[in-house]
Amino acid sequence: MFTNSKRFSRRRFLGVSAGAFAAGPLGPFVRAACAQVTTFKAGVITSLSGENILGGNLTKRGYDLWAEAVNAKGGVEVAGERFKVDMFYGDDQSNPATGADAAERLIVQNEVDVLFGPYTSGSTIAVQPICQKYQVPMISGSAESPNVWKAKPEFNFGIIPAVDTTAGKSLAVLAKLSNPMAKTIAVIGVNEPFSKETGEGFRDGAKEAGLEVVAYELVPASGDLTPVISKIAALNPDIVAVGGHEEPLINVVKTSKSLNFRPKALIMHYGVTDPAFAQALAADADGTCGVSVWLPSVSYKDDLFGTAKEFAEMAQKKSGHEPDYTEAACAASGLVFGDAVKRLGKKPGLTPEDRVALKDAIAATDIQTFYGPIKFEKEGNHYHDNVQPVPVLIQIQGGKTVAVGPKEAAAADLTYPLPAWK
Amino acid sequence: MDLFLQTLLNGLLIGGVIATFTIGFQLAFGVLHVIDFAVGGWVVLGGYLGYYMGAGLGVDGFLAIPVAFMLFGAIGYLIGPILYNVRNSRTARPELMALALTFGLFTLLRGGMLTAWGFNTHSVPTVLSGESLAVGPLTVPLIRVAAAVFAIAIAGGLFLFLYRTRYGLAIRATAENRQNAALMGVNIRRLSATVYGLYAGITAMAGVLMGAIFSVNPEVGLRYTLFAFFVAVLAGLGSVGGALVAALLLGVIEAFVATYVGSSYSLLAIFGTLFLVLLVSPRGILRHGL
Fold first, then answer.
1. Nearest 5°: phi and psi at A42?
2. More confident: B104 or A13
3. Across residues A180-190, what is the average pLDDT?
4. Which of A76, A218, A383, B260 is the most buried (most CB within 10 A)?
5. pLDDT tens-digit map of A366-385
6. Domain residue spans of chain A
7. Out of B10, B130, B267, whose CB is closest to A230?
8. SS (H, E, C) chain A
9. Contact, A157 vs A376, CB < 8 A?
10. B:185-214 residues touching chain A, CB 8 A cutoff
11. Pick from B4, B8, B31: which is nearest to B171 by CA?
12. Mean pLDDT for chain B overall
């Protein structure tokens, strides 16, 4: 039974409330003094919904593979100690503006030490000013548009060479391997940053390879491809080159077949190496060429993942699919962070000054990984992009992705010209 | 000349393809007076049914069409009364509440498909996929012909149903004046459920064809919702016949602009047409509803 002395009197209530109110502002100081941060926080911004969801999840898988592998070894090594990594995710909903909001939330609310970049170049371009504003470094394992690097982003670093350095080179390899020699080409680009620049890369590369460009078409991502394929079929080029993401690439093949049009060679850039492409098209995917800056068969290795083949087996076990070069580059992004923070020697709970120093440490990266060498450009149009990897021309043969050129990297002969549709 | 004829054919066929998922949308609007944003969701569900029947059971996608009608028609019949209640509730702005409900349903379908079936893009295998017929200088893609025939058959079937049966008479009466129809003994609630079921079934059938012509993943639904809405506005909301005409018109415009001007201008041409029609004839090209 309560007595008068134990009752919570109004005077006492007001006193306690006033005390609590006065102590409130001291909270953060007390927390900072008492709490010891024991993990690094990494934020991933990617497309977890919207039209780029497939690629978005692919990038997430790559970043997660690194986090799982490094945490399984006890975490990132700094000054002889190991610290685990916590991953935080922001969904850009396949929309660059939403990506910028997600990045800001990860930085302000989750207080991440580093960001891992979006799947699309459009979102990456939108997130860059946020990284600059809050001075948080970002490592982009997917962006391939040259416009990302032309802006000279101080806090963003790219693992994959920009498409203008790879599309043209691969097309030149294809033209050289073609027998009888290809003379004409038609280029289709989906009208969004990466795909459009891939199209431009193919167009410019075609001129350098001595091919006559008979058509250059930009198509809306959601448009019907029948008119453009009919128009190109009437011009009958030897090669058709396409810049786009997965779904338009699948629709190019389906529409071409429905119009009974098959060029002597069909080359696309990103997407062909994604196993979902061959699965969706089954036998119709055979013969399609693509560009890759990494394959499980390359001879690179590192301490965390081992060889490229071992990485591929680990990824296959995890997701049931053979990883493509974007998934590999995303996993390698984590290796760049681990190496930079180790050289920096700063333990978790990075201050704003530490993050700027981390950016400088990332810029000085020069490592060998299972993905290949990683070293960022320090000037020019590819500022902070890793242009070290050499592109390989691949072709789907019997449902498998195989390297067909250049000759020193080839595991099989290029099928050229492609047979008519069955 | 060959390219001109091929472009005309392409335009008419893509128009027929667009019409397949717009006809049911018009019917639902005519009776329920709801702009159903879930239309893209029903299309994608139909596509997935076709894919799983093809991949899982090894049957042709065309066999999934009647299954899609029965399955999603039944689900639509169960959802119909909910939509009817919201649309006819006494809350303020029930038409906006119904719109929000269909948007919520679309989000739920999209999220549910994403969780259940993942994000990979799939194709519906059919006996006509990738097959074409050479007619003189023209190449006729047979799967698109099938979709266009389907659209004409559905529009014709609906016409006969609406104008030659007593139940069709009740639907038209309800679309024209709900109170009077109710006073004449029409059970509006049940009729609304039937119409929504019919719409969901027709749209899911169209989805099987969309999955065969293009590809299917949970994210493509929004595209179909937008196209259905554009065609419906151009046709005049609620006009089933107008949907067929408007879809063919948009298809032909898109094909000619893409071929002779540039593909990047095709959406501009579609929006421009929509703008002009609304300016000149705000009730749509046929100027009447159901």
1. -120, 130
2. B104
3. 95
4. A76
5. 999 999 999 999 999 999 99
6. 39-161+298-375, 164-292+391-409
7. B10
8. CCCHHHCCCHHHHHHHHHHHHHHHHHHHHHHHHHCCCCEEEEEEEECCCCCCHHHHHHHHHHHHHHHHHHHHCCCEEECCEEEEEEEEEEECCCCHHHHHHHHHHHHHCCCCCEEECCCCHHHHHHHHHHHHHHCCCEEECCCCCHHHHHCCCCCEEECCCCHHHHHHHHHHHHHHHCCCCCCEEEEEEECCHHHHHHHHHHHHHHHHCCCEEEEEEEECCCCCCHHHHHHHHHHCCCEEEEECCHHHHHHHHHHHHHCCCCCCEEEECCCCCCHHHHHHHHHHHCCEEEEECCCCCCCCEECCCEEHHHHHHHHHHHHCCCCCHHHHHHHHHHHHHHHHHHHHCCCCCCCHHHHHHHHHHHHCCEEEECCEEEECCCCCCCCCECCCCCCEEEEEECCEEEEEECHHHCCCCCCCCCCCCC
9. yes
10. 213-214
11. B31
12. 90
Contact B109, B49 (CB under 8 A): no
Which CATH class name applies to A164-292+391-409? alpha beta
Nearest CB to B143 within list A191, A223, A258 = A258
Q: Do residues B153 and B236 make contact, with C-beta atoms less than 8 angstroms apart? A: no
Domain A39-161+298-375: homologous superfamily in CATH: Response regulator (3.40.50.2300)
User: Using the beta-carbon criterion (under 8 Å), do B215 and A57 form an inter-chain contact?
Assistant: no
B11 touches chain A (CB under 8 A): yes
CB contact under 8 A, B263 and A261: no
Would you call B123 and A281 a contact, using CB atoms and an 8 Å cutoff? yes
Mutant choice from A57, A200, A230 vs B, greatest count of B C-beta within 10 A: A230
| Average pLDDT of chain A to the nearest whole number | 89
Q: What 8-state DSSP symbol labels residue B133?
A: E
Does the distance separating the beta carbons of A260 and B134 come in below 8 Å? yes
DSSP-derived pairing of the beta strands A184-190 and A212-219: parallel
Say yes or no for a CB contact (<8 Å) between A284 and B130.
yes
Residue A54 has pLDDT above 90, yes or no: no
On the question of pLDDT at A422 being above 80, the answer is: no
CB contact under 8 A, A224 and B3: no
Partner residue opposite A228 with nearest CB, options B141, B215, B263: B263
Residue in B with minimal Cα distance to A261: B139
- Per the CB < 8 Å rule, is A226 touching B219? no
CA end-to-end distance (rounded Å), chain B: 39
B264 inside 8 A of chain A by CB = yes
* Chain A residue with minimum CA distance to B137: A234
Chain A CB contacts of B254 under 8 Å are 223-224, 227
Q: Which of residues 74-133 of B touch A (CB under 8 A)?
A: 114, 119-123, 125, 129-132
**0.90 exceeded by pTM:** no
**Does the beta-carbon distance from B259 to A254 stay under 8 Å?**
no
Distance CA A337, CA A335 (A): 5
